[in-house]
Protein: Sensor protein CseC
Organism: Streptomyces chrestomyceticus JCM 4735
Amino acid sequence: MVGGCALGVLIGGRLSQRLRKAAAAAGKLADGDTSVRIRDEVGGRIRDETDDLAWAVDAMSDALQKRIEAERRVTADIAHELRTPVTGLLTAAELLPPGRPSELVRDRAQAMRTLVEDVLEVARLDGYAERAELQDVPLGEFVTRRVRALNADIKIEILRDAEVSTDPRRLERILGNLIANAARHGKPPIEVTVEGRVVRVRDHGTGFPEALLREGPSRFRTGSSDRAGRGHGLGLTIAAGQARVLGARLTFRNADELTDGSTGAVSVLWLPENAPTNTGSFPVIQLPDR
């Protein structure tokens, strides 16, 4: 009797340990580490139900990755095919005689070209093959110069400066997209704050829709609950993807009228203390409760 109980405890403990390893591996997979294989993490020579679960989850993950990659390639191929005719259309539009109709054609052709370039950028980011070209950058000075070049009316506040190792081009892209989203879907004044390695972009509109706060940026969903045909909704998706390449974290919240003084959408970029590694892995950023 005692021996049977001891054996049961031993088997149960081993099974529990393997399940914990499987759960930890599944967590890495959910965070986007597609190289993880649960069957490798579980290990062991003894076959039990945990192995069957691991093989099933790995098979599902492989099938999902293949489907995502196929969709990404189709998206990239379509955008590449559209690039040449759209460029030709934009060139032809420049040859039209002056007038309001010509301006409208040129404006729509430029919008289509921007959309094609954005779709290509999203496809590259989805491939997880992008790598940051790092430089040491004084963050406060960098943000001030870039924001002034975009819009001189934006209020900039440097609470605490810091030097960061980052990719200036990608950081500028993130700032530009966040500010463009605030200008398009929010209300002035737009405020940009630098506090150490944290950059905040805030407007004074109605804030982000609940779906974006709950699920994060989604393609072709803008930062406004009233799209009204304004924008394609790729700006925040690109900003989040570029932040991932930098090893940074991009979060979104709505300002509260009671605690913050007014409503508005707040985008917060958390740059890491350590630069992304050559393997493309990034340090985990611990976010404060605020």
